[in-house]
Amino acid sequence: MAMGSEEAQGLLWGVEPDGWASHESNHSPLFRAMIEATGIGSGTHVLDIGCGAGHSTDLIAKAGATVVGVDAAKGMVDHARKTFSGIDFRVGGLEELAFGDDEFDVVFAANSVQYAADLDTALRELSRVCKPGGSIVAGLFGPPDTVSYKPVLDALGQFMPQPPPGGKPGGPFRLSAPGVLEEGFATAGIEVTSTGEANCSFEYSGWDDFWRGTRAAGPTQMAIGLAGLDAVEDAVHLAVEPLTAADGSITFDANVFVFVVGQV
């Protein structure tokens, strides 16, 4: 893309923020596990980077912390401001944080670092704004064979540009293999202190409920931009048929998310 990766991601994820918000709370088990793993509570100053529609930021605030939620998508930030009053939400990118050095006790990045064009730059920025001795936590999809949502991602993947010969593979699982995110932390000078996982079951009353949230995701919006709405919707509809019950409900029971905690 000619534009910067943060601007591009912001545009993709900002198209249908209400739709994404209808899905985002499905990730709450991951958010809660990351909050517990970093000891977020009263007196903790937290940066929630890639906060999306604000569900993770709200849970952090409810744990007693002072939190700033930042997302590249203005539409997401506008939605979060309307939904969660009293929380500081700002528009901003992952790879160039608009904060000074050593500002936060915890830097919290759920479902965001995998979208960085330059992972090392992004992680070094997270480290820069974290206080010495503070914690950085990043969470994302686990290995593909532990994620029942994978058929949806595969359906979208057929429309995506392929990496150039010799280039690093992209996609939602590019940091999911064991040790990959940990290696990224170490390269950025962040000491890994623990790892963990959480299962996030996705349940939908029917196709319309499912498609509303899935269509709003950045990768889906990218696929639609490349191949058109009808082609993408047809491909995803076919992918979820085996997971659709007789009453039309759609359930993804096993969706393992992994997270890595580090210290600066």
> Helical element count?
11
- State the secondary-structure class: alpha/beta
- Give the tally of β-strands: 9
Using only CA atoms, what is the Rg? 18 Å
Percent of residues in beta strands: 15-25%
- Which quaternary structure do these chains form? single chain
Shape: globular
Average pLDDT taken over every residue: 94
Helix proportion of residues, in percent?
25-40%
Spans of at least 5 consecutive residues with low confidence:
none
Cα-to-Cα separation, first versus last residue: 33 Å
Order of helices and strands: HHHEHEHEEHEHHEEHHHEE
Strand arrangement, largest sheet? 3-2-1-4-5-9-6
| Largest sheet, strands/sense/barrel | 7 strands, mixed
Give the helix/strand layout:
Elements: H1 5-13, H2 17-24, H3 28-37, E1 45-49, H4 55-62, E2 66-71, H5 74-83, E3 88-91, E4 104-110, H6 119-129, E5 130-141, H7 150-157, H8 180-187, E6 191-199, E7 202-204, H9 207-216, H10 218-227, H11 229-240, E8 250-252, E9 256-263
Parallel strand pairs: 1-2, 1-4, 2-3, 4-5
Antiparallel strand pairs: 5-9, 6-9, 7-8
